[in-house]
Amino acid sequence: MTDRNTGRCRLADRPEDFHRLGLRADSVAAWEDGLRTDPAPGSYEWWYFDAHLEDGSSLVIGFYTKNPIAPDRPLEPFVTMQLDRPGAPTLLRQCHVTSEQFRASTGSCDVHIADNWIRGHAPDVPYEIHFAATDVVVDVVLRPQVPSWRPATGHVFFGEHDEHFFAWLPSVPQGTVEVDLKVGLQTEQLRGIGYHDHNWGDVPMPRLINHWYWGRAQAGPYSIIASYITAEHRYGDTEIPIFLLAKGAKIVADDATKVRFHLEGEHTDRQSGKPVGDVVVYEYKDAHEEYRASFRRELTIVDHQLVEDVSGMKHLLARLAHFDGSYLRFTGNVQLEHVVESRKTEDVSDPGIWELMYFGHAR
After folding, report:
1. Contact 45, 36 (CB under 8 A)
2. Pairing outcome for strands 155-158 and 164-183
3. Domains 1-203 and 205-363 share a fold
4. Which CATH architecture has domain 205-363?
5. Taking a C-beta distance cutoff of 8 angstroms, is the pair 17, 153 a contact?
6. pLDDT exceeds cutoff 80 at 311
7. pLDDT in tens, 105-163
8. What pTM was estimated for this model as a whole?
9. What residue segments make up the domains of the chain, in order of their start?
10. Domain 1-203: assigned CATH number
């Protein structure tokens, strides 16, 4: 496919965008978390879940129609599960199945990949997530605490005529989590705080996006979702901030035009060769108050080279093209400071999960 791009990249936030996509500006419908693409060649889609658990563990589960960097492939469904526990090696499992073992509803989130599933509907129906491998079985109940939300339509369009897109829906910005975990012969019941979102698009993300930081956390009574997307050079290196702050069930800040982003302690990661910030900072300012969210890295729990996710001739071509995309996931402390009229009124923190997805070459 030949690009006809002229550097345009934008968050789809106009009235005509909502009309074109069949969305409402004041609510999120159940069908929005259902299957949004034809999983044949020409699209990708995934449903993501993560949680911080009471014992300090982190759990991440993802349901994919195919590898997101190869949307021209046919339906190749798979599920991934990663469990990181204090003082223990990372437990990573994947389940790849045939296209006949995939089914998903277009009316709500109800996705089955073989004997694994994610299903639910915020706010009325708690989400149930089930993952099973030979030696690991995980059952999750996620109960939403914060209403479903999206930045405008949730779509970022690329190209002079909006030819391509990347879409994102935080269906459950924050919720309580109950986990039944079986590893080998050992069973446990754990509780924590969780998150679920949903992503889809129509062309390989490395063609559109150079890199992004994304993170979510609870900090005291606040729920935070924060992201900073940098488009590829052909789209003008456009930067798109995304920010959601809720206190309890009430959204208190989500105007991305008021967000400033910067990194502290930036250094080159040894394995990936990408620049990584030890502290990722989002500052939200309006006329009289300011919120500052600081994601402070303590552990890098994933440092993965994306070229390893493609095989055969595509792997060779990626090597020859010097494709060096990387995915890094971090855990650490997330601090939220609230300043009103130049006076700090709140300073709270809790554990969080965030990531750096680097598709392109480091600038």
Report:
1. yes
2. antiparallel
3. yes
4. Beta Barrel (2.40)
5. yes
6. no
7. 999 999 999 999 999 998 889 999 999 999 999 999 999 999 999 999 999 999 999 99
8. 0.89
9. 1-203, 205-363
10. 2.40.370.10
